[in-house]
Structure formats: structure tokens, C-alpha cells
Amino acid sequence: MEDKIIVEHLSLSYSDGTESLQDINLHIKENNITALIGPAGGGKSTFLRTLNRLNDLTDIKLISGKVLIDGENILDPRTDVIHLRQKVGIVFARPIPLPLSIYENVAYGLQMAGEKRKSALDEAVERALHQAQLWDEVHDRLSASAYAISGGQQQRLCLARVLALQPEIILLDEPTSALDPISTAKIENSLEILKSSYTILVAPHSTQQAGRIADDVAFFLQGELVEFLPATLMFTNPRDKRTQDYVQGRFG
Predict the structure, then answer these.
(1) What's the CA gap between 111 and 199, in Å, rounded?
(2) CATH hierarchy code of domain 3-247
(3) Which of 14, 48, 183, 218 could form a disulfide with 18 if both were Cys (CB 3.0 to 4.6 A apart)?
(4) Distance (Å, rounded) from C-alpha 65 to C-alpha 120?
(5) What confidence score (pLDDT) does residue 159 get?
(6) What integer pLDDT is reported at residue 1 of this predicted model?
(7) Vertex 26 angle, CA 228 and 206, to 5°
């Protein structure tokens, strides 16, 4: 399995003096689910946002190192950030549907990218809603407001909105933290199916979720990547005592 993302000596600090990432080195495989675990404030969200340059919108004092996606350093100032964010989509912890219909929410990104053909939009909306396991629940009310569906459905709608653009990488920052167990299971099931076509990085809301869905796991602590292992080893035989203490619930 090939590396999709290679991170070399990535460090990042904010203008307020907070150092969020310290010399991160990581190889992320294509068509895998990679989970990022660790206590709050450890750098997981910052790392995810670096992968599609959302951190450009924050007050960064210093960023150094390389993030190679398909061999290209996305931190290069010449990077087309709009194209990058189409290639690397993100879903946040709380669903943020647009004040539009279900159909318009999914089609929005494509329309912004210049797609005007209704047949192409229809096809993309149906495909993305199927992939997000939402089509069967909303296919007969696509013109209804996105606010009329449940929170769990809204989160899958936000996933569909990302999928409509056919990215290569999907980032998810605690995507089920606000959801009930049934909605959580649907999201997890979707990710298991999607990894055959996408490279997925997720900061799950619990180590238990990481154990259920991940192929590889990265443990972040105070901005440091402590350990990166296959999930089976991370949860049964970690090498670092800090990792062992965290996965066994001694802190965090």
C-alpha cells in the first residue's frame, strides 16, 4: 500500500506563543483509516487543518517542514489552496448545514466550482448521499430545508457535501461527538466502506471508536507525535509508556 501523505519535520506555533506541533514525521497510507488520538490540546485538530491549509486562516507565527501529498509539498506558497481543499475535504465535530435545501447543500461545492449542468449535479448529489448512507432517508424530500432533518442526518449531509466534490482525502474532526449511538454507527459504517476509494484521517471522540474503525493510529501528546502504530499494536502492545497509560485510561 502506497503512502498518500508524507509529513517531514512539521512544526507549527501560534502567535500567542502556543506551540501546537513539534517536529512531526509521519507516513499515511492510501485507502486506510488513520486515527489521531490523544488528550485535548495535543495538536490533533491543528494537524488535520494543516493538511488542507485551513490553518492559513488562524494566527500562525511559524510553520516549518514539509507536508507531501502525492509528492507535492502543500506548504509551498505557490500551492493552489482552492484546488487543495477540493482534494482534501474536512468534516467538523458539529454539523454545519447551509441555510439551503438538502439538495442545494450537497450540490453547493460543485456549483461554486462552476458546474451548471443539472444532470451532472443530480448524479453527484445522488452518489454522494448514497456514499454517506443518507439517500434512503431523504431521497423523497431533497427540496426540504437541511434544518428539517436530525443532527445525525445533518452530519451525514455534511459528509455528502464533501464527497460530492470527489476528494482524494477526507479529514474528520470528532465527527460523531455530538451524535447518538445509532447515528455514530452509521457514520462509522460509511467510513469503512469509503476507505476503499478515499484516504481517511479521523480524530475520533474516544479511543474506543479509534479501536473500532482505524487501521493505523497516531498518538499526539502536547504537540508531539509520541507513537504511530497499526491499531492492533497501539491498543495491545504500545512501545511508549505514555501511550500505554493513555490507552488504558490513566489520563486524558
Answers:
(1) 24
(2) 3.40.50.300
(3) 14
(4) 39
(5) 96
(6) 78
(7) 45
Which residue has cell 450537497?
Answer: 106
Domain map of the chain by residue range?
3-247
**CA-based angle 87:132:163, to the nearest 5?**
15
Alpha carbon distance, N-terminus to C-terminus of the chain: 32
Give dist(CA 42, CA 223) in Å, integer. 5
**Cβ distance 75 to 63 under 8 Å?**
yes
pLDDT at residue 250, as a whole number = 85
Residues of the chain with pLDDT under 50: none
Give the contacts of 118 (CB within 8 A, at least 6 positions apart).
none
pLDDT of the residue at 172: 97
DSSP state of 63: E
Closest CA to 93 of 40, 31, 29, 147: 40
In this prediction, residue 16 carries a pLDDT of: 85
Identify the pLDDT of residue 156: 95
Residues 6+ apart with CB under 8 A from 104: 98
What global pTM score does this model have? 0.94
Give the pLDDT score at 194: 96
C-alpha distances in Å from residue 222, one per residue of 99, 189, 202, 242, 245: 37, 31, 18, 12, 15
